[in-house]
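Still learning folds. Look over my entry:

…
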Amino acid sequence: MQPTPSVDPDASDLRPPGPDECRFCGARPAAKVTFRGHQGMILIMRFLHTDGPFCRDCGLAVFRSMTAKTLYQGWWGYASFLITPGIVLLNLFRRSRVARLEEPYATPGLITPQSRPLDPGKPLYQRPAILGLLLPVALVAAFVAVVASDSQTGECVRVSGSRGTVVSCSQSHQQKVIATVERDSDCPADAEGYMEYNGKVLCTRAD
């Protein structure tokens, strides 16, 4: 009796991943999630997306890659300063759907782009792209500083001897702040005096 030779499975028996299998490696379990990205290029913007389903590892890899690129490419369009934070927050929200999946296991008989799950790589906070968060923080801080530096305009000054104190105009006062400038020479022509306050020059006149 002759031994039965082993036969490789016919290629026609292979199939693409199903709706509950990872689109990249075919592993299960998988979640149907879409991660998005954004590129701002001054006058042109690009909206990117990668659709699932993803297993845990492939989903984390896509999330980290697209979000990291958005953090350093997403701030340079005319409306990107508003769009990019929304996309980053959306990705963070959707991340939990893949992060809570169990460890992926292979599904045999599939045709897939990857033979195994993608390497998720380093978390976002350990990547240089996280420095992209410093840009909006710096811009907001600069805006707040400018607003704060000009916040004394319209307030009043109480003079006591040679010392002036910024107070609300509802309190007793002698002068009103009409401008906040860098140097006393920049005060408007109708200013009658000035005082230094928090590194700025407050231009005043009698009130």
Q: What stands out?
A: Confidence is low (pLDDT under 50) at residues 1-8. The radius of gyration is 31 Å.
